[in-house]
Amino acid sequence: SWSAVPAGPPDPILGVTEAFKADKDPRKINLGVGAYRDENGKPYILGSVKKAEELLTSSKPDKEYLPITGLPEFTKKAALLAYGADSEPLKQGAVAVTQSISGTGALRIGGAFLARHYPHSKVIYLPVPSWGNHTPIFRDSGLEVRGYRYFDKKTVGLDFEGLKADLLAAPEQAIVLLHACAHNPTGIDPTPEQWQIISDIVKERKLFPFFDMAYQGFASGSTSQDAFAVRHFVSQGHQIALAQSFAKNMGLYGERVGAFSLTTADPEEKARVDSQLKIIIRPMYSNPPLHGARIANAILGDKALYSQWEGEVKGMADRIISMREKLYSTLTHDLKTPGEWGHIKNQIGMFSFTGLTPPQTKALAEKAHVYMTGDGRISMAGLNSSNIEYFAESVNAAVRG
Ligand code: PMP
């Protein structure tokens, strides 16, 4: 039956991990994976998560099915975390929200909802580059994927002129995907002033903004600061779609905790949208997993756990920021590595687009046992005080050729 099925290409990011695992050198470093690592290079379970799990275990909860749209207490708190207590649509009861299989599932529900119910366009614009999974998610949802300029190779910064020109040239009412903060893979975010201009263009062109917020708290260390773009758009009267993930900010990667929401005109419209979200979700996976949503709900709903969590998110963000500073100063001041490295310090979130070329990344893997994606993206979280000097020296050697 399957003799005509062609072998598909391997996943580019998982391929990096395979090569890393096969390498036996003790100095090896994996900077491909998008998961936080602690100062010892180990996966990190947040203290607030451990406590929430202890509380859950002792309360001996049942294992019944959740409703189709998930744990209602959790989705309410997730929306509050993103939109903020002052959000008008939230106060009016006009935000339709459903639990999702982490951020990926939220994007997929959103894509499917827009493909089925957004009457004005089937075209979605993604930044170039964007997270590698965005294109297949939206294509498989039934949307047509196009790109808008985002990254400027020359400055290793934001191509804001290109971005504005492309959004202004987009057909009216097209959908535009925006990374709410900590853009993956570039680590480059618009400034608050630039977000205001983007909001004006989106309004002028009547574009539909779809925010992907996979790193709330991870960029600046503050969940409200990282929600600036989402809250600004909502305050400007935009109706938005929003995908949220708790993989990074709570370290709940494998628990698959997320939420998808749409702001609507009023509670009556919200109820109709809710009913259609259920119709999309029911035949996909019936209802979402329970455990992770309970953990997130416990943290978001308890004052002490919440403030512990905020401190832990900030701790992760700060450790990454300190690695950026250390890497920058080692390359620039200690090793005098040719080139401009300021972007490493200025970029935001888990990743840095280093500007290393494919031959340089290949040399780093083969000669130094340092693994990253072929586009030169590194996960800053994979660096720590034990490996950062070796990494900087290896980069220095690769750049000097
Ligand atoms: N969006 C972006 C931009 C991401 O980087 C990620 C994680 N790599 C996701 C969404 C979704 O991740 P998850 O499904 O694990 O929440």
UniProtKB/TrEMBL annotation:
Which is a GO BP term held by this UniProt record? L-aspartate catabolic process
Per its Swiss-Prot or TrEMBL entry, what cofactor is needed?
pyridoxal 5'-phosphate
Q: Give the EC number.
A: 2.6.1.1
SUBUNIT field = Homodimer.
The record lists the catalysed reaction(s) as:
L-aspartate + 2-oxoglutarate = oxaloacetate + L-glutamate
Please give the InterPro entries that the UniProt record associates with this protein.
Aminotransferase_I/II_large (IPR004839), Asp_trans (IPR000796), NHTrfase_class1_PyrdxlP-BS (IPR004838), PyrdxlP-dep_Trfase (IPR015424), PyrdxlP-dep_Trfase_major (IPR015421), PyrdxlP-dep_Trfase_small (IPR015422)
Sequence ranges assigned to domain Aminotransferase class I/classII large in this UniProt record: 27-394
Spell out the protein name for this chain: Aspartate aminotransferase
* NCBIfam families from the UniProt entry: PRK09257.1 (NF006719)
**Single Gene Ontology MF annotation:** L-aspartate:2-oxoglutarate aminotransferase activity
What lineage is this protein's organism placed in? Eukaryota, Fungi, Dikarya, Basidiomycota, Agaricomycotina
Pfam families for this protein: Aminotran_1_2
- Further notes on this entry? In eukaryotes there are cytoplasmic, mitochondrial and chloroplastic isozymes.
Q: Which family does it belong to?
A: Belongs to the class-I pyridoxal-phosphate-dependent aminotransferase family.
Keywords linked to the UniProt accession: Aminotransferase, Pyridoxal phosphate, Transferase
**Which is one Gene Ontology cellular component term of this protein?**
mitochondrion
